[in-house]
């Protein structure tokens, strides 16, 4: 499930990279549509791993609600961290997610992206879309957006009805539980994964 979700996540995140916030359309459908159509070229094999990783980092900083996503991903363990550890976790979370997803883009070169519709869900605006791959079934991607000044921030992405941030929270909780319930073990694991960004995404237990 985690590997499938990361593959789907890579599609969506690749669609967004390198698109300046200033060029985003003011309406949610246009925001997601412009990002998808302009960023899909990054799915090609001509983009080097280092370039892709740099663009992912830029993407998360500009278009995702990183602090809120990081707090959600850590769940109940957020309060167990000191303020300094919380700051480190937010930074590691951003770098880890960028590194984990950036290497999973190449197989989706030639995919097509289209927006299907928009709906309101509480304080969030949900933009429904799909990615049509050269081979395989289309991937349903639902973007959850929150207002951010005159634009939007991405608060979650659902892939075939599976929440990216919920899946990541569950994965992080398992890492902590597998390491004696020590929240600080997650920091060690993330540091290691970022250092070994060219290794497989599978996360080892901290020692």
Characterise this structure.
The protein is α+β, with helices and mostly antiparallel strands and 207 residues long. The protein has a single domain (2-195), classed as Tgt2/MlaC (Nuclear Transport Factor 2, Chain: A, Roll). Helices cover 47% and strands 19% of the residues. It has seven helices and five strands. It has a five-stranded antiparallel β-sheet. A hairpin with a 2-residue loop joins strand 4 and strand 5. Helix 1 (2-16) packs across helix 6 (164-177), helix 3 (49-63) crosses helix 5 and helix 4 (66-74) packs across helix 5 (83-102). The longest helix has 20 residues, at 83-102. The protein is globular.
Q: Indicate the CATH topology.
A: Nuclear Transport Factor 2, Chain: A
Q: Helix- and strand-based class?
A: alpha+beta
Largest sheet, in brief, is:
5 strands, antiparallel
Flag low-confidence runs.
18-25, 200-207
What radius of gyration results from the CA coordinates? 17 Å
Task: Name the beta content range.
Answer: 15-25%
User: Can you tell me the number of structural domains?
Assistant: 1
Separate helix tally: 7
Task: Name the features.
5 strands, Nuclear Transport Factor 2, Chain: A, 5-stranded antiparallel sheet, disordered C terminus, globular, 207 residues
Brief description of this entry?
The protein is of the alpha+beta class and 207 residues long. The protein has helices at residues 2-16, 28-39, 49-63, 66-74, 83-102, 164-177, 183-195; strands spanning 112-121, 124-132, 139-148, 151-159, 162-163.
């Amino acid at each position: 499930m985690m590997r499938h979700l990361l593959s789907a996540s890579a599609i969506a995140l690749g669609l967004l990279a390198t698109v300046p916030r200033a060029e985003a359309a003011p309406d949610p459908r246009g925001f997601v549509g412009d990002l998808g159509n302009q960023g899909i070229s990054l799915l090609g094999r001509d983009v080097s791993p280092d370039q892709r990783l740099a663009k992912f980092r830029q993407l998360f900083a500009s278009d995702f609600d990183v602090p809120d996503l990081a707090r959600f991903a850590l769940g109940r363990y957020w309060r167990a961290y000191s303020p300094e550890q919380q700051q480190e976790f937010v930074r590691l979370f951003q770098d880890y997610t960028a590194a984990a997803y950036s290497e999973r883009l190449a197989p989706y070169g030639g995919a097509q992206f289209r927006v299907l519709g928009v709906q309101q869900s509480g304080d969030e605006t949900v933009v429904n879309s799909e990615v049509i791959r050269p081979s395989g079934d289309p991937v349903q991607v639902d973007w959850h957006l929150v207002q951010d000044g005159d634009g939007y921030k991405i608060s979650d992405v659902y892939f075939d009805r599976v929440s990216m941030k919920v899946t990541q929270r569950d994965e992080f909780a398992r890492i902590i539980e597998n390491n004696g319930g020590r929240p600080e073990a997650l920091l060690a694991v993330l540091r290691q994964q970022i250092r070994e960004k060219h290794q497989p995404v599978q996360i080892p237990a901290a020692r």
